[in-house]
Predict the structure.
Amino acid sequence: MSTLRIARERRTLQAMIELYCRGVHRRGDLCEECSTLSAYARSRLDGCRFADAKPVCSRCVVHCYRPPMRDAVRAVMRYAGPRMLLSHPLLALAHVVDGWRSG
């Protein structure tokens, strides 16, 4: 099940993980840790029961990430979130709008 909202969320999260890995791990391609996180996040998004009505993860009533992965995604978002405005402005703007809609 791949809806437009989930597909955009998947692109946004992938872009954030790539920014994080490049900046923190100093890798041109994804390291094993970031690849694992990316695959896990994709699997969680693919199984999201909210589909197009999905809120941003920070406002979701169902926490579908295991605690260690949730902490890893938080670190990625904390690092990559502000940098998304420069590297992926449309995805960043869409994410902000999604946050307003789900709030």
